[in-house]
Design a protein that fits this description.
The protein is of the alpha/beta class and about 350 residues long. The protein has 11 helices and 14 strands. The protein has helices at about 20-35, 45-55, 75-85, 100-110, 125-140, 175-185, 205-215, 270-280, 300-305, 325-330, 340-350, and strands spanning about 15-20, 40-45, 60-65, 90-95, 115, 165-170, 195-200, 220, 235, 240-250, 250-260, 285-290, 310-315, 335-340.
């Protein structure tokens, strides 16, 4: 009989812990079960054992170390996601210190989140709170009613890529993987400038832009004030400022950086990017909202729609967290609700299927 929650009305999320350290496995298992919010379904010491376990047992969350003998965690990650039947993977490793390339690689491969693992003696306090908070957010059960799956608004019957002068993309939790899928499938023939606001700290940005350059096969830079938007180039909001679009005439533009407070509380925020894009480019604005927690982007999406532009959001099934895209869809602002690979096809051909 499955373990029930304290309320007695739902099973506790099942957790698989993967770490080659016996001590780390024991401490993390104690923290997880001690919270009373999760059930430790399995504890294994290698990536191969984790793959075997996930193939046999249902789990909701996988806490995965990176540096392990034999197959490392990043190598195992795609297979774990493939056989995990929707399990969310949180990388728990000393390799994911702030700004580390391992962090972004893990997120690009599909990890839902990362937590830096301290020495076993320090696995309490901040680490415990951070880990449990991420686990709670990623296994929060049913989405709130206003995030229920919805049908895209029927106003637009076709989306023609050539009709847009700029592509604006906003994302947060789970968004790096989705963004990677979208960008890697874009051909060099797509010449619109792409502006990205991804919720990440400043220290990640050099690694993030380098990664996007490789994935997309096109130049990618961290935005600077007054930077011009160039055809086929990607501009990414820095971790400590909003990106705002301004028109420089005849379908061209530039970015301005600002740091004012916004309603979402995010810095950078998707809302100023979308709202300013709508003002600068009007109906020739294409806004895309990928996986992320919260409602950042919903206000800006309304401005895009009011200006006659187009809004596309990631679907619930492929999203790690259907917060940001779900909020836009629930307001009736989405012209299309699609998985990332279909969004890429839409950008190229205008076809939703």
């Amino acid at each position: 009989m499955p373990a029930l929650s304290l309320a007695g009305d739902a099973p506790l999320p099942r957790v698989l812990i993967v770490d080659d350290s016996v001590v780390a496995r024991a401490v993390i298992a104690r923290l997880v079960e001690g919270s009373g919010r999760f059930l430790v379904a399995g504890v294994v010491g290698s990536a191969a054992a984790a793959i075997d376990f996930a193939a046999r047992e249902r789990v909701d969350l996988i806490l995965l170390d990176v540096a392990m003998p034999g197959m490392d965690g990043l190598t195992a990650l795609p297979e774990l996601l493939a056989i995990g039947q929707g399990a969310r993977v949180i990388i728990v490793s000393s390799s994911t210190s702030q700004g580390a390339t391992a962090t972004l690689k893990a997120l690009a491969l599909g990890a839902a989140d990362t937590v830096e693992k301290p020495a076993a003696a320090a696995m309490s306090g901040n680490f415990e709170r951070s880990l449990l908070d991420r686990m709670e957010r990623l296994s929060g059960g049913a989405a709130p009613p206003y995030f229920a799956p919805v049908t895209p608004r029927p106003a637009r019957t076709a989306i023609e890529p050539a009709a847009f002068d700029v592509v604006l993309i906003g994302a947060s939790t789970g968004g790096i993987h989705a963004l990677s899928v979208v960008l890697r499938d874009l051909p060099a023939s797509l010449r619109q400038p792409i502006v990205v606001t991804q919720h990440l700290p400043s220290s990640f940005m050099p690694y993030f832009t380098a990664q996007l350059t490789t994935i997309a096969g096109r130049p990618c830079e961290v935005a600077t004030d007054r930077m011009r938007l160039r055809p086929g180039h990607i501009v990414v909001a820095p971790g400590d400022a909003h990106v705002r679009c301004v028109s420089t005439g005849e379908g061209t533009g530039a970015v301005r950086l600002t740091r004012e407070r916004v309603s979402s509380g995010c810095l950078p925020s998707v809302d100023p990017m979308f709202a300013s894009g709508a003002e600068a480019f009007g109906a020739r604005t294409l806004a895309i909202v990928l996986s992320g927690m919260g409602r950042d982007g919903a206000e800006g999406a309304r401005r895009v729609q009011d200006a006659g532009g187009c809004v596309v959001v990631q679907d619930a099934e492929s999203s790690v967290v259907w917060g940001m895209p779900g909020a836009v869809a629930a307001l009736g602002l989405a012209d299309a609700v699609l998985p990332p690979d279909a969004i890429a096809r839409l950008l190229v051909t205008g076809q939703r299927a």
